């Protein structure tokens, strides 16, 4: 029987917020991935890049302020940088864990560009807060450049678009490595958002929600399962209340009802739930699983987490 094909989406809890934290945390992710390899799953991995992309953008902006001859790095470039250094840490951690188990398998990171629609309403209604806290004067300068800002406690911050992914340009390269039995890390941070202009790809000032790109990746790779590894065990409604309800298995129709009732936080759980619903609804024979990073194998076996089915 052919090995099961899965796309694994790692949440920000797999990386932490500093370089040392990331190097320590990717060891846990590597253990989870190695467990799945031992269970004969074929794997493509995608991952969050928050807050890493924000740190890069802040650092590059501050550098341009201190060294005026250097321009501010566009968000697409910051996204590419985050893919590179997160992929570097992650692929090395997975490689080491596999070798320590006597498993010889290549792990590769593919710098990935993802097509977005220039007419996506997200560009006129940005939601992703990013970068350092600014003064009112600095915020006004950003607005004069045509950028969006939002007022928060202590000052102002830039806010950018989060459009939906349409296509993945490096999908054939990813598919070739995947079908050759390699472990592929791709579309990190949702991928580098780009606009197609003839034969040219132009970086967009945006951050794609990685959960939607994970679903697109699973769709294009014809994966059997979309696996979200998070910091919590199950999908839960009313956590901490008398009405608390945790899900072992939930059907698409039921999940859609809970989404419409607004049960899932927009900035955390909702994208995973909505992406899972879209993937399973389009491919009824497949499933999505949301579970804790430390329970990846158990989640796929239906012994932990929440399984979403048609």
Q: Span from first to last CA?
A: 24 Å
Give the SSE string. EHEHHEEEHEEEHEEEHEEEEHHEHE
CATH architecture descriptor name: 3-Layer(aba) Sandwich
CATH superfamily: Acetylglutamate kinase-like
Helix-residue proportion: 25-40%
CATH fold descriptor = Carbamate kinase
Low-confidence runs (pLDDT<50, min 5 residues)?
none
| Number of domains as seen in the coordinates | 1
Instruction: Note the total helix count.
Output: 9
**Overall 3D shape:** globular
Radius of gyration: 20 Å
Structure description:
It is a single chain. 38% of the residues lie in helices and 25% in strands. With 310 residues, the chain is of the alpha/beta class. The protein has one domain: Acetylglutamate kinase-like (Carbamate kinase, 3-Layer(aba) Sandwich). The protein has an eight-stranded mixed β-sheet with strand order 3-9-2-1-12-16-17-15, sandwiched between helices. Strands 8-4-10-11 form a four-stranded mixed β-sheet. A hairpin with a 2-residue loop joins strand 6 (148-152) and strand 7 (155-160). The longest helix is centred in the first third of the chain and has 26 residues, at 75-100. It is globular. The mean pLDDT is 92.
